[in-house]
């Protein structure tokens, strides 16, 4: 039986990944500050711990693993990442986790180590035109991310590659682009745009209005969670080291995205622009490299994944549930 460790298994992507790995018949050890919020973890073992502690990282990785998936990070949506209020915590906490994990793996090697980086590493100056952002993997340098979150992710990419060169660690690195789906944060201050807009539409009356941050012309692409998990496994088990984009090329404006959610909900909704952190003006995954090196590209249309996500969040709203707490995921 393949032995797998998922770090950040209490979070959105990590919990879905652990479920897929269990479905494949793997033994899964999960670790995070807390267990998944919305469903029981499928992991065979789940260690509640802070990977900022080097002893915890060593304990989690004891026993030998064929694959290690490192998704643990201090993160959130634009309201958490782009205000500047959490910059020190984001950089310190996430960098400490990665330093501890790699040192633990140097002492107790694993077969393959996956690191979840982010499209936030791409230079801000290449993402000023909402209609023509440049996010190919080779555009990362000269580096100029628009957030400290992006700088930490870029540093950690280099950290993993340095351990590969100097210590023989077999690494795989993905740059995730706006992953969304059911069972993610939707009302705790760390939610991302898809969940936040689904929540707003679910709570709005037909004929009402919702707020969007900025003028709504900023663009993004969004990747459904099942597609993300598939791309992650393809990369980890491939001969390609990366970094490589894991995202969708179906770009949409934030205003258009909100209108798509309203249409799924069957509601007439007006959009009201308000000041708020918006990040770069445009971002879209460039999937030429994953198609070439992994034989992978997402197949699910945005609207299909969004319909599933909206149905889940609408059910949370109707049940009167309130998302709460925070986790490093």
CATH architecture of the largest domain: 3-Layer(aba) Sandwich
Widest sheet, order of strands: 3-2-1-4-5-6-11
Instruction: Specify the helix fraction band.
Output: 25-40%
Tell me the name of the CATH homologous superfamily of the largest domain: NAD(P)-binding Rossmann-like Domain
Q: How many runs of DSSP E, i.e. beta strands?
A: 13
How many domains would you count in the coordinates? Answer: 2
Question: Structural class of the helices, strands and pairings?
Answer: alpha/beta
What is the first-to-last residue Cα distance? Answer: 27 Å
> Beta-strand percentage?
15-25%
C-alpha Rg, in Å? 19 Å
CATH topology of the largest domain, anyone? Answer: Rossmann fold
Count of alpha and pi helical runs = 10
Q: Tell me about the biggest sheet?
A: 7 strands, parallel
**What is the mean pLDDT?**
95
In short:
By secondary structure, this protein is of the alpha/beta class. It has helices at 12-23, 54-61, 78-81, 87-107, 148-167, 193-203, 225-236, 254-265, 288-294, 302-318, and strands at 3-7, 27-32, 45-48, 67-70, 112-118, 171-176, 179-180, 209-213, 219-221, 223-224, 244-246, 251-253, 270-274.
Give short descriptive properties of this protein.
about 325 residues, alpha/beta, 2 domains, Rossmann fold, UDP-galactose 4-epimerase, domain 1
Q: What this model shows, in words?
A:
The two termini are 27 Å apart. This protein has ten helices and 13 strands. The strands form four sheets. It has a seven-stranded parallel β-sheet with strand order 3-2-1-4-5-6-11, with helices on both faces. The chain has a two-stranded parallel sheet with strand order 7-10. The chain has a two-stranded parallel ribbon with strand order 8-13. The chain is an alpha/beta fold and 329 residues long. It folds into two domains: 201 residues, NAD(P)-binding Rossmann-like Domain (Rossmann fold, 3-Layer(aba) Sandwich), CATH 3.40.50; 90 residues, UDP-galactose 4-epimerase, domain 1.
